[in-house]
Amino acid sequence: MVEVVLGGRSTLYHVYKRPFVDYFLKKVSTWYTLVIFTASMQEYADPVIDWLDAGRGILAKRFFRESCTQLPNGSYAKDLTIIESDLSRVALLDNSPVSYSSCQANGIPIEGWTNDPHDEALLDLLPFLDSLRFTSDVRRVLGIRGFQ
């Protein structure tokens, strides 16, 4: 349960963690600086991010809906240059390709998750993310892998 306060009203939300997310974040945070960039409103996302971080300090920065660009169809795109101007060292793991439409060569797609307790998508990404850290430009590798 996560409490969200919007417009002075408190609402409790049931939030579930994707399988292996704690292990994934702990492991990947030893390789990379982790930044959360979400199209969610800050009032909703902050309590969820706090819960994921659990006081470990592994999530370095947070960007929310106000940092996104709303597209004519109502979806949100994320301009990764607000995180780092040199995109050779930036990758975005996201379930919506529209999110990285302006920086397609930096996107790593992942299927959305709702409630499959046997989901291993995060574990499956670990060997790839481990190897990606040794390249000088993530865009060249992501392009080879067909993520563009």
TrEMBL record:
The lineage of its organism: Eukaryota, Fungi, Dikarya, Basidiomycota, Agaricomycotina. SUPFAM superfamilies: HAD-like. GO terms for molecular function: phosphatase activity. Residues 1-132 form the FCP1 homology domain. SMART domains: CPDc. This is FCP1 homology domain-containing protein. CDD domains: HAD_FCP1-like (cd07521). Pfam families: NIF (PF03031).
